[in-house]
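NB-ARC domain-containing protein, pasting as requested.
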Amino acid sequence: MDILTGCAGSTAAEIGKCTAKPIIRHVGCHVGYLFRFKKIVDDLTKAKKDLQLEQQKVQEAIERAAMNTEVVEKDVEGWLANVMQLMEEVQTFENKVQENMRLCNGWCPNWIWQYKLSKEATNKKTIIEELQEKGNFSQVAHRAPIPGIGIFSSSDFEVFKSTKLASQQIMEALRDDNSKRIGLHGMGGVGKTTLVKEVYKKVKELNDFNDIVMTVVSLTPDVRKIQGEIADCLNLKLDEESDIARASRICLRIKSVEKILIIVDDVWKDFNLEVFGIPSCDDHKGCKILLTTRSTRVCNLMRCQRKIPLNILSKEESLALMKKAAGIVDDFPPFYDVMLKVVEECKGLPKAIITVGKALIEKSLNDWNVAMHQLRTSRLVDIEGVDEERNAYVCLKWSYDQLRRKTKLCFLLCSLFPEDYNIDIEELIRYAMGLNEHEDCHLLEDTRRQVRAAIDHLKDSSLLLEEFSEEYVKMHDMVRDVALWIASKGENEFKLRACTRIEKNINLESVTAISLMASQN
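Structure tokens follow.
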């Protein structure tokens, strides 16, 4: 019995030892809530300020990313939302503390309230510290995918019988597993580029492909530039130096996409697309290629399984487009007759109809008659390769003739940039200033104002195209051909040359300006 009593006593003693420390710590913690109230609140305030500094750093990083069109990471957005919510809770808590201090006025504090507030402050401080630790992001944003050309589609697009039929045929071919390469062919100025941009938009909306790429090849392809356009569409960063390595990188990226549509605009001759990084259809079954060209022969050489023509507009369609471009509502008989004759000179080409129509907005019946006679008598026999597109060139030349002198110079300066070039307006302004043609402009700002006014007029006249940014413009290849021809003749006091190289024995004495931007040397 004594043995049992002794064992019980020692066991109780051991249990007492084991439980005493936790109980003391627990009691001590509660006592701390009561007698360290001010310090606990001050610690919370300091933790809050530290978190606010971290929040400010992250917010500034997000603002810098936004200026680079980068997209904020989801975890960063979530962190900021949690911080905002916690800040509101802390502010509510601080208001409660102030209310408690006001009621007791420093005397006879409410111990129960003080205990609860201290405990709440300690919990919030812990949450703040955890959030601050999570706010040390290695990356707050990533590059945004390029939105695609859909947002830059032409305002001049009209759904006529010819464009509707071609569009339907393209969509059918895109759904046909046997049609890997599709060729859209038609005369210059008939609207091939405008149509494929609309196809791009439609395909994007239908979500038939995982990715869509669009690039422009032109008469003299710039491999590196085309590779850059493709990479931008795929949100791909190219670090390689050589064109071959860049092409391999692009090819790997394209092959990683299950279904991809690649639109290759303005193809002039048979070209190995693999140079740009575009794999053959046999090499990637999910890849479809839609190309545009002026020649059915190119479609054959590029081994297109489907060849789709984009025909010129009918007489009725041409007349409807002219009325819209010129802003004509009423069919006043004498006016209608001369307008019909002007339309005939445009030969059903939308580019020609739109430029002529816009030049004749709010013009008198006499002006229309003059325009009709000028279009009929124009001769452009020495434009190389004019062929069947002669009437489009005639109409563009006539539209140029209607411009004011300084607008003409701006137009011709744009032709000195390489084909399909994104023309920086500020760069154009510096060239205009250097030529000193704006003799009444003594400051750069005066020249800037006049050049920008000229560009706005050229865009309104459809002689320049709007680009991805209002700081850039582009020239349609047919418009550029006419501009270069005009510039080479030195009409209206200007004579400009765009060359790939300076040839021997060439006379440049009368040349106002020369461009070697397209030089390969």
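Note for the archive: The first strand starts at residue 70 and ends at 72.
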